[in-house]
């Protein structure tokens, strides 16, 4: 690996860490008036259109199943979500929003729309925003592929 490649990796990682912090801060601000945290909003948002098992939510969000389980249990406890029977798996129940959970997400919508419009403008228009999304998605796919190769190499009986 060249020094330039290492520098690019370091700058990318630091940039993504910073972006994560910035998005979490903005998400907390947007979610607070709806009585949610950014994490609660993330999990509710993941099941807004289709109920999902906790493990599926965790995979989609790139976090641990245990973290999602804790949040899901809190959402259920507060009446913002419910567990439903999963016809595909007896033990892995599906998480689904309640009407109260949907209403909380709806209260976020005006602030979310305003932020999207301001960020689109700041980036120079929708085309530039969509290119940013494509680059981030490409980076995520590349990291997933590298992780899959690494897991394959680490599997017992796999030649290295």
List keywords for this structure.
160 residues; 6 helices; 3 strands; mainly alpha; 71% helix
The total of beta strands comes to 3
Give, in spatial order, the strands making up the sheet with the most strands: 1-3-2
Shape: flat
- Residue share in helices? over 70%
Helix and strand pattern: HHEHHEEHH
Count of DSSP helices? 6
Largest sheet: 3 strands, antiparallel
Strand content: 5-15%
Radius of gyration based on Cα positions: 19 Å
Helix and strand composition category:
mainly alpha
Query: Which consecutive residue ranges, at least 5 long each, have pLDDT under 50?
Result: none
Describe what is shown at a glance.
The chain is 71% helix and 6% strand. The chain has 160 residues and is mostly helical.
Description:
The chain has 160 residues and is mainly alpha-helical. It has 6 helices and 3 strands; from the N terminus they run ααβααββαα. It has helices at residues 3-31, 38-46, 54-61, 65-77, 99-123, 126-154, and strands at 52-53, 81-84, 94-97. The protein is flat. The relative contact order is 0.09. The model has no long low-confidence stretch (mean pLDDT 93).
Topology:
Layout: H1 3-31, H2 38-46, E1 52-53, H3 54-61, H4 65-77, E2 81-84, E3 94-97, H5 99-123, H6 126-154
Antiparallel strand pairs: 1-3, 2-3
